[in-house]
Fold this protein.
Amino acid sequence: SALPGGIIPALLTPVDSRGETLRDHLVSLLEYTLDCGVSGFYVGGSTGECFLMSVSQREEVLAIASETVASRVPLIAHIGAQNVDDSFYLAERAQALGYRAISAVTPYYYGFSFQEILSYYQELCEISKLPMVMYFIPALTGRTFTSQEIARLAAIPGMAGIKFTADDLFKLERLRGQLPEFVMYNGYDELLLPALSLGVNGAIGSTYNVTAPLAIALWESFREGDLARAGHLQWELNTIIEMLVGNNLYPTLKDILERRGLGGGLCRKPFLPLTASQKEESARIDAHITRV
Ligand code: SI3
């Protein structure tokens, strides 16, 4: 049961104005991206708004994704939470729901020591039979790790990979060379092609919810050795990403899904709905993506 490679959307969670998950919208998003040819889904991560959700809401999303995908592609469940018992509970649920792997963000906010973080992952890896993908996102956790520290975490039995959401490509390259068996996912969609050139196994990202065909074309161009086309596609994608990020990323991704008739819903508070001018910009971004 290998971890998936290729293009893996970090799945959005469409919700209504009360923050309840819109099941039908979530199912449409899963079916649409599956039709585009994605290789798996990362469920309940940052893009899924996990840190704004209750445990039962997170569990519900894990269940809807596994029922809908029904083993067509492998699923990775992000189960990281500030309350360790919640992580353990979600890890158990992910296993029962047939997930291929679990993933957990590195513990944040309290300035934990490396030893504390190490023992957190050791315990999670002991209780779960599923392989673990550590979620490294220093810009949002405020906690970075040296490549030596990441290598020590990678040596924990059951630790199978890393989602590397950082722009330190030197660190990525050093890790790749040091840990040839470790599964590495690129996390910043802006850096897909450079990360591919350094040997990542897959890419997990938010923008693939709306740009999967382009990202898959980039992936295939790279595989075929057509670097000119891959570079052009990265340029096209980055023009789109720049516009998306400049317009409030997650609400804009969902607004684009609405425009495509898939139903993206809203984001949970404190995210605000898009303003009228942000909606106009979102329409322009969607039209731009369609033209590319
Ligand atoms: O857990 C997740 O939702 C992710 O995979 C996050 C992913 O790395 C995204 N990072 C964040 C903070 O949203 C990227 O896909 C990012 O949105 C994209 O590269 C645009 O900057």
Notes: The CA atoms of residues 28 and 116 lie 40 Å apart.
